[in-house]
Amino acid sequence: MSFTQVEHLFAGVDELGINDLLQAFFTARPRHLIYGTPALVPVTTVAATSIPALAFPGIPGGIQFAFVFSIPTVDINPDSSGGTAVLIPGAGEFTVTTTVRIFFQCGSRKSPNDQIDRGRPTFLETELRVVGLCQPVVISSLPGTGEIGIQVKRVEIVDIRPDSLESIVECLILMILQSVLANVRLPFNALTAGAFGLILIAGPVAEADQIKVRGNAL
Amino acid sequence: MPDILVAADEVAATELLHDGESALGVITDSGSGSLGPFTASYTASASLANGSVDLLPPNIIRVANCELRFSVSFSFSLDLDTILPRLCLPRICIPIPFFDDICTPRICIPWPTITVSLPFSDVVTFTSDFTLNAHLDGSNWLVDVVIVGIPSLTIGPASAAILIALGFAVAAAVAWIPFIGPFLAAAVAAITLAIGVAGVTGLLGPILTAFVSGLTINVYTQPRVFEILPASLPLDPAVNVNLDLIAASVSRTDEDELILTADISA
């Protein structure tokens, strides 16, 4: 069977290539992996993104925290783990594996009128291994300059008890990871290594360890 | 398995070739050559257009009916004395009694040397095989298609047309010459006969062959440090990957395809 099938042009990026693209993206733009409230990230820079503290009555300055993700790696259908992965990519799917380090400020600064001893603020840290089940999606289908992106459908974090807490943490991480990976754009030009302007007709599909697109040459 | 694999069928490969032809632009050349018994100087330009691709494993791109669109401007000098009969007034003697005859000298009028300029444009088509050549040139990866051998150019019709145009040009160039009237047709006929289609072909052939001999059409150029996303200032710098290896080949399954592979690294 030809690569192009009924179309005129085919581009396929192997999962190792996708990992290289993700490595390049997040190395150049690390702020999309690192999010912190002003106590940890006072201002947004290339290196990190500042987010507002979580306001809560009676806590001066709000609740301070940070999420720091490692550069994710992908496993495109079929599963490469031999069945040991916590999430198995089905047809048209791939998994994203990352770790997230969560920094949480315990205690807060004392305000002038505060009569409560809140203790000295300290940061607690934990690290979670996160696996997300994803599928490639079209962000823009503009001929030549279109882009594909990543849609995270669910995440799995193991070994959190009780299960209800695991569900809450998974939901929290799912929302955050969706936002993190929504920043990732893979332009058509990258998928074709700059050889062709792609007019997308079919795809993207995740199969045979590749993200595949088909179409016509611009 | 390569990091990136791009496949193009013959339709897409043909578009790629046409882009390469456009990028090649106009090629120019100049020189001089033999035109029958005369010497002509010329300036020539040519460009490529059209042609359809037939992909042949493992690495041949056959381009059929590729058009070589050329313009040649010839300039050549003709010494009419070499081709026209001499025009002479005969010696006339007047006999005078008791004295020697009085004779006029024989007077010959020399024909001038004329310069004829002849611009000519035409299209010749050719079919030829090209091989794929992927290579790193400095900081850029290139994929070129390089012609194999020297294609046969059918230039007979062009040569015949040039010869006819040459006849008109010579007629116009000599029309001002006194006493040429009776010899005009003979002059044109003599010149075109002296040159002949073979003469024009002998000059035009090497000119056009020079344009296609060693012909290289670039179909892929990308910097080794390949930008996949431009900078989005002020917070998001450009995203680049390294193109570590680019290769090109032809694959045959149920369809012939041009394959370009890339190995990349962050």
What percent of residues of chain A adopt helix (DSSP H or I)? Answer: 10-25%
Give the DSSP E fraction of chain B (strand runs of 2 or more residues).
Answer: over 45%
Give the overall shape of chain A, derived from the CA principal axes: elongated
Main sheet of chain B, how many strands, which sense, barrel? Answer: 7 strands, antiparallel
Structural class of chain B: alpha+beta
Q: What number of structural domains do the residues of chain A give? A: 1
Number of helices of chain A: 3
What gyration radius of chain B follows from the Cα positions, in whole Å?
30 Å
Q: Which overall shape of chain B is indicated by the principal axes computed on the Cα atoms? A: elongated
Helix and strand succession of chain A? EHEEEEEEEHEHEE
Number of strands of chain B: 15
Number of domains of chain B: 1
Could you characterize the architecture of this molecule?
The complex is a heterodimer of chains A (218) and B (266). Helix content of chain A is 17%, strand content 38%. With 218 residues, chain A is α+β, with helices and mostly antiparallel strands. Chain A has one domain (9-217). In chain A, the strands form two sheets. In chain A, strands 2, 3, 4, 5, 6, 7, 8 and 9 form an eight-stranded mixed β-sheet that branches. Chain A is elongated and about 75 Å long. In chain B, the strands form four sheets. In chain B, strands 2, 3, 4, 5, 10, 11 and 12 form a seven-stranded antiparallel β-sheet that branches. Classes of the chains: A alpha+beta (218), B alpha+beta (266). Chain A binds chain B through residues 1-4, 8-14, 16-17, 20-21, 23-25, 27-29, 31, 44-46, 185-187, 189-196, 209-210, 216-217, and chain B through 1-9, 11-12, 15-16, 143, 220, 222, 226, 228-229, 235-241, 243, 246, 251, 253-255, 257, 259-260, 262, 264-266.
